[in-house]
Each structure stands twice: as C-alpha cells, then as structure tokens.
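Bumping with the actual sequence this time:
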Amino acid sequence: MKFQLYSATKQNHTGFVSCVCWLNNELVVTCGDDRKLLIWNASAHPEPIRTIQLPIESYPTSIDSMSTVNTNVSSSIDSSSSSFSNFKSDPQSNQLIALGVSNGQFYLFSPNWNGNRMEKAFDAHADAIIVIRWSNDNTTLATGGEDGLIKIWSRSGMLRSTITVGTLPIYALAWSPDSNSLVYGNGNQMIVKSLSPQSKSIEWIAHDGLIVNLHWSPLNGHILSASEDFRVKMWDGTGRLLFVSVANTTAPSSVSWSADGDCFAISTFNTIKLHDSSGACLFVEKLASEGIHSVAWSPDSNQLCCVCASGQVIFSYVVEKTFESGVWRVMNTSRRSIKVTNCTNDFAEVLDFRDSINRISFAYERLVIVTTSQCFIYQSNNWTTPHQFELKNIDVWLIKQSQKHFLLMNTTNANLYSYDGRFIRMFKLSNMRLECIRSNLVSLNNKTLAYKDGINAQTIHFIDLDSSKSATQRDKNVISYRHVLPVLALKMSTDEKSKDQICAFMDKNSDLYILSINGHQRTNLKAFKLSSMIFDFIWHSEANVLVSLHDNHNVTLWLYPNVVFTDSSLIAEVLLNISSDQLTTSNSRIEDFSQSQLTIKRADNVRIHIPVNPFVVLLHNLKSDGRWQEAVKMCNFLDKTISEVDSIDRNVCKALWATLAAMTLDAKEFATAEVAYAAINKLDKVLYLNRIKSLTIPEVVSIELELVSGNVMEAEHYFIQKGYILRAVMLNLELFQWKRAMELAEKYNAKFGGINIESERHNTNSNDLIEENDLPRDNNISLIHLVLACRQNYLKNKRKSENLKEFQALLNEIDHVIEWSDVEKRIVIMLSWINGMCRNVHNTYHGRTQNIYMCVGQWQVASTKTSPSTLKTNNYIRTDSSEYHCLQIVKKFDYENYLASLFIPSNEIRRTAFALRAFNVDLSQIRDLTKTDNLAQIRFQFWSDIIDDIYKNKNHFDESSDKTYKNFPVAAELQIILSKSNLSKHWLRKVINIRRETVYLQEFPFQTLEELEKYCESCFGSIYYLLNEKIIENSTDKSAGYRISLDHVASHLGKAQGLTNILRGVKHNAISRRCYIPNDVLINSNCTHEDFLRGNVNESVCNAVFEVATNANNHLKHSIKLLNDLKGTHGVEKCIYLPYIPIKTYLESLEKANFNLFDEKLYRKNGYLPWKLWWRSKFFK
C-alpha cells in the first residue's frame, strides 16, 4: 500500500492550520489561525466547497466531529457540484462538531450551521484547550487544557466530571473502544483512567520525552503514542509494549489509526509514513510543504487529510491494496479503478467505476466491490460483465464471503446476497458495535453466521442461514455461547462438503478453543480447549483443518479438530508441528491457508510460504466423498514408502492414521476404524469397536460411542432417556461411582421391574429389543439390592469395611444383602438383551475372553478365565491408585513389556509384573533425572532403605494405614505386592546394587561381553526370577525340577532382553556420551566408542553390533526352546515370557538392516506387535 497525494491549486488558509476532521467519507473540515472553517469535498474538488468565517476572537486549537458510524449522514454528493447545498444532515442523527479555542472555551455546532453566531459556547478551562475528543458512542466529550485538567462533558455541554492531573498541560488524550476509559499523556507518562470512580488507573513511563499525540483504535484496541523523543510506540490497553518505531529525523507531530484498524499514519515536520497494524513501514513520502501539524483518516479508511503550519491542506488516497485468491491478484490503482492480474500468464484487466471505491473483498475467486452507491460482483472467468445492484442508504463497513454467498455489514444490519446479486435476507444485529465490525470477529460459511456480541465481549452469536425468517437476538435460529473470558477472534470452518459446523475462537488469554454447533448440540454448547498461548489461527479454505501460530517459531496443524468430540484421546495424535527459523511470531499473522500451502506474513511485511503435506487435504476429500477404502490404501501406501520418499515423514503417517480413525469413528464406519486404530497401536479401542459392531440397536451404538469419547455423563443421560436404567446403574458401578449409582437406583427403583435371579435366559431372537420391564419377575431383586450387593462384593475383595454413610444406613434398614454371585450372571444376560446381543452368554462366561473397561477416559485390557464378578472388581483400576500409577509408568517408558504383561491371565501375577517393571523403570531413570553423582547415590540409597523397611514391617502391614508410601506410588505398590507374597529380597537388592555399581560410576563400564551379560541377567533376569517365585506360590507343582526349568528360561531371556536393550539404547545414550558396548567386542571389530557416539556407520561398527546381537539371539533361542519344553498345562508361566516376541522382532529387523543401528526403520513402532502377542498368548492357554 501507499499514498497517492494531491492538494489544492492554491493556498486557501492564510495562516497556521491546526484542526482537521471528517464529516463522512467525502467531506473534510479544516480550521486554522485565520479563523476560517473550510469544508472540502475530497473526492470531487481540490478546492473548498464552503468557507465560513468563525465569529470568534480566539484561535481554534482542536476540532472533532461525531462518528458517522451510528448516524445517517448522506455521503452521496454530486461530484460535479461545487456547492455545499447538496449536503444535508438527517435531523434524527444530531451530528455535532466540537471546536476548542485558545481562550479555554469550546463550541458545539451542526454541519449545517450557517456561520452567523455561535449559539452553544461553553467555558471549559482557565487556559487554552489543547485537545478535544468525542467518545466512540457519541454521547460524551472530553477536553484537555493547558491548566492540566481533563473535563468530561455530555453532548449537550453539561459538565459531568473533572480529572485533576497536575501542573503539566494535557497535549494528548484518546477514548477507549468501549468509551468507558480515557488514555492521556502527562509529560512522558501514559495514564489509562476509567470513568468509573471506584476503578484504579494504569500508569507507566512510555517515552523519554513529552507525549504530544495519542490515538486509541476502536477496532483493534491498540494505542499509538507520539513523543518528542522522535519515536512512535504501540501499546495494548494494559500498557504492554507492542511496537517501537525507529527514531525519526524530526519529532512526530501526529499519529492516527485508520478507521478499520488495519494501518496507521505518522506525520513529522515534512514526512508522511504509512504503517500496517503490526508496525511494518509500508510507505514514506517527503513533502515540499513544511510543518505538517495533524492528520485524520476518513471513516472508510481510504483517504487521509493532512494540515500544515504553512496553511496548506494535503489529501491522499490509499492505493495498491493487494488481494489474492487462487492465481488471481487484485490491486486498486486509483480512487475509481482496479487492476486484475493473472499470476500464471500475462493477462491483465483494468476495471473502472463511476464512484469512489469504499470496500473490496476477494475470496473464492470472486471479487466484491462496494462503491458509494453500488455493489459489483465479478467472477474470475468473466471480468467484463459483473452482477451489480444499487445500495440504498447502506453504509457498508465490512464484507464477508463464503463459497455460496457474501455479507454486507454495518452496525445495525447484515444483508446476505448471492453471487448473482440476488438479495437473500437481512439480519438485525441489535448488539453490534463499531469495535466488533472486524474481519476476525465476524465469520461466515455456507450455513452459519457467527459474530461477537458488541456489549458482552464473552458472548458469540450463531445465526442459521437456512432459516426462512429474519434473524434477531430473540429468534430461535440464533444460538448464543457465553465464554468465561472476552473473545478476541473467531472463525467458522469453511468445508462446504462437511456437515460439521465448527467455530474456533481465541480468548483474552490467547487460548484456542473449538466449539461445535451441530444439530442437537446447539441447545447446550460446550467449548473444548485445544491449545494455549497462540498468536493467530486460520481454517483451511476447503477442508476442516485448523492451523495455529505459536511461540518458538512453531506452527501447529490440527488435522481433524472434531476429534475432541469423537475421541479426545487422539488429540495429540492428529496434530503436526512445523518449525521454521524464518518465522518471527511477534506480530506475525497467518494470511492464507489453501491447497497445500500456508502463507504467514511477518512483522517486517515479508510473506513466508510453508508447504503442507498434500495427503492431508486428500484425506479430507476422500472423507467427504465417503471413499474409506481408498483412504486406507493411501495411508498404507505412505507407510510402505516412508523411507523412499523424502517428503513423507513418519509423524505425518501416524497423524494421518489417527485422523482416519477419528473420521471413521465419527461416521460410524467401524470396520475402517478398526484398521486405523490398529495402525496406531490402539488395541483396546480395536477390541471395543469390535464389540460395538455387534450391537444391533442404533441408539445403543450412539451411546456406546459417547463412552468412547469419554462423555460419561452424556452416556448416562442417554441411557436413562431411552429407558435403559439397568445399563445406567451398571455404568456407574463400573466407574466406582457408588453414590451416583445408589442415587439412580433409589430414583428409578419403582419404574424398574427387578432382576430375576433364578430364571435362565429365554429363547429370543437376537434382533428383538427386550424392554427391562418385560423380563420375568419371579424372585426379583430391586436396583437398590443390586447396588448394595456390588458394593459389598467390592469391599470384600478389597478387605475393607463400609465407610459411606448412605450405604451404612441402608445396611441397617434391610434384612440381608443378596450375594453378588447370585445376580451377576443374570445381569450379563439382561445387558445382552438390552444391547440386542442375545447370544450364547455361557461362552463368555466360562471361556477365555478379552474384556475392556473404561475409567475416566482411560482404557484397560484384561484377559481372564474367572467370572465377571472378578472382572468388575479386581481388573478395574482406580486412577488414583498406586496400581494405576505403575501401569502408566510401564506404559509410557516400557511399552513393549506393558503390552506383553496385559496378556498375563492371573490378575495377581499381572499386578506383580507391573509393580516390578515400574520399580525397574524408576531405577533406570535415576541417571537421567539426577545431575550429580551424590544425588544419584542418595536416590539409590532411598530405594535400598525402602526395600529394607518393607520387609521389616511385612507381617504388620495394613493397606489402609497412613504409614504406607502414599507419596511414592511405586514403593506403595511394592509394599502391597510384597505383603501378599513371599518374594526374595535378594533379587530386589541385586537390581539396585548392579545399577548403582556398574552403570552410574563409569561412562564405558564393561570390559568384556561376559560382564555385560552378567549385568543384563542381574537387571532383567532378576525380574523374571521374582515372577517365577510368584508363579510357584500359586502353582500346584512346586517341584525342584519345575523351579529350575523356569529359572533357566528367566536367565537366558533376561540376558537376551538386556543385550537387545543395550543395542536399542545406543542412539539415545550417545546424546549424553555414554556407550555400553564392551571393550573386547570393540577391539575384535577394530572400532571405538567414539564411532558409536558419533553415529558412524561402517563395517567395523556393524561387526561389533553383529557380535552382540548374535549373543542375544543365542540366548533368545535357548530360552524359547526351554519354554516350549515346559508342559502344556502351564499357561500362566509362559505368558510372563511373552516379551521374547518384541526381542525376536527387533533382532530380525536388525539383521534386515545389515546390523546398522542407526537405520530409521528400527525406531518405528511395530503396529502388529499387539496382534502377535495376542495370537501367541492363545497357544499358551
């Protein structure tokens, strides 16, 4: 952008010109020391159209006119007329001009004043008025004088309040966007003062010199300050510095924001500068005239007027505003012409118009131009014959476009038009204000209009465009959402093929939220927080892909934001992070996101183009067309070619699989969803989806999907609403929400027919829906008895007594408590009927099955041969328990052993395995989490003391006692496990000592391969020795031969696992310059530790890896042979050795990579590992 300057042919003022203001988009008023008030038509004549000699003796110092935003001042003046008689102000508008003079008085008069006598004169200050300003709502006037006072006046001239500042003159003041506060300069200080008497002012030192001018933008909320220290600064409303200009050659005389807040102008002695909203300088012009005193923008932000000390008045028009869409570029070349260019060829077209151009919008390759009297719509394939229509008394402040229609907006109305110029409907926006008519506070797509409330900054309104009636705040097709903090920006999703209506918005804390307004959710809108501390965000122009700009040169792509409403556990999986050193996030803005390119405009006005993987948009296109099989093929293709194509990243593949999983789950394409979840190793979801596929009642499927999403309360509500009372009660029992379960039982007990504990299941068609009240009622028990039975069974298994007052009172009132074993089988049958799954329940009852349970959004897989009562009580883990903590530690840091341990059939042994592995993980992390040797020794000693203390108090341990290690969950879980078992203390101490003595004290601790194998057996084999002791405790075979056979397997598998982990950890350990490859292996292979630390790939390094891997493979084969020699009746002990499968898989992959440890393929997650473990576990049982 730049200014196109022009001025009058002769000098019309004979003295210093100090005052300038705009009446509307065309008329300008100037006034100076010659006491002449000149009115100019900026668009038609370079000469004043009216001259009024002021009937005053003092000199004018400041002038301001009421804003025309909320008035109806006509701006259509005949360009050929040089008379002011065509200009008429609507009597209902009551527009006033305020003029301050040097004797401390100010005058109020209308634009139609005849110049005879000043009727409204007011004594304001003892000395001259330096600055006078109307508030943005045109109800209040503020004056600042040389006497150091600021006075607030009503529009009729009555004094409301006086702000005593001090002895320094008030050279500058400005109103806040909401007209409730003032900012003014006091020397080199800036002060924000609220008109509320109880509020406290904000003060800060802003400059090194006197502040001479201030302007507070009503749209973007930023404050500009000019000072005699030769600098201009930009601030927010709280005093946070946003921008500092370079030092000018002379002191700035004036600063002014454009009405739309997109740019600002700075004037010095003989220079005019144009800056964008971030502070980047766009244009500089040096003038021949001297002493530019003040500048003022027109209400449409297209023109600027400058007045000079020499008496000259200069006008300028903003040209070369550039708009782009597709391959087209549009730029205004003058007040009435626009140039259209095709960037791919030499095509260029100039569009000329009769009237001045006020607004331009170019999106979706459709150009919308608003002049003072007409609206023109151009298509990119036809620049010669536009659609056009007349604008009758419509003052357009904003144009918003969607793919099907566009919106012309002002403070009272929003008119919707089609691209053929047809008027569709009008919306009455009663709460809209000027500061909310901004592009980032109004959003439009094909179905919904969203805008921020002009009075309540926390509220967003959504208008359904498909409704046939005109919308107001009271209509039913207007939905409102109230946030906890003020909203700073909002954008609607733009995918026309998608049924999802999603709004993303940023609040005052710079947090990004997402809001869905689809269908039934409109009555109870809930926002979900995606990210914090963002700078900007934007939707893709064709797909529901959201991108946000963060600190640290980081851009985040949310490939499917709907995942928060579908499966919130995938949030971290469906995002991609893009980093670029070219990004400077301070004041940077995202300009465009279309096709496979993201455009970011930096603060220095440089555009950065960031490529985005094209498969992201392609996946959304496949989703819109319902081509799910092609989507699976695409993701599989990317998996196979990840190492062959440089542009395909491993993280992109994983994110696309997760996106496909969320998409298919949302579309209820369960078969495809299973494939996608399996690809990202979500075995629990795969099994649960497999169960959902068996459900035949659509409404039950929808409710179960709510549970997948973690919406437990919604699922319970729907169960009750559809009449599935028993399922709602059982849901709370599974979540250990005892009080809620009893509350439902008491509330709906009378409506529930009871549970028959004697009758067997009836022969019923599996597709028939059986109501709970239709079940047999012989020997029925109520819901209250059911909850009590489940609670007592839980307390019995946990060895606890009742501590809930509600249940204690009920136990005193009833005669006896029904045994849980008497009702559990009947409940399974009833729930199967309710779900439409009347199959052979006895297969699930007595066979070996996989069961999935949810706890506050977390899922656990458990396999068992026991009854459902054991499943419901023992396998279910509380999220605040030490057992859950250990499980999560192993899952995060030892994922392969976590998966393998899930398939241990015995609940008790499985819990022991997780506790021991969590203990081992904690010890292995000591070196990485401590900075000095002493701290590490203290940590090891801590564990030694804990083990001694546990065994010392083993026989007197009480789980409910306060003396347990509640602040150390791993220690607490070990205490529970060891109190119930006779595990040897020797193996636990051996793990601690070997890690302390061998690993920490040396950087390269192993001299020979034999030493390394000894270390591996102590660290990893000891865990298997302890599990063997647990197995023998529960086994009927306690023979010495059986024990020896198990210990041989543990020894060899421990060595194999340890050696494999040493190889897998070489790349990670090299970061801290550690290498555990033995010296004798290095000598035999003619290489050094430094080769491994630097990641060198050569024949010597591969030979060293081969020698270690060969030993690991030998131990692995020996352990598998010993394992296969065990009797087939032993299934539990074989399942604890399932970790041999990931060891074998890694060694095979290492061989395929020619023993190159640094091959990227070795560090990928194996998506088939859960299936291999599950398949192998079937042959162990």
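The tokens above came from a reply further down the thread. DSSP finds 31 helices and 59 strands in the chain.
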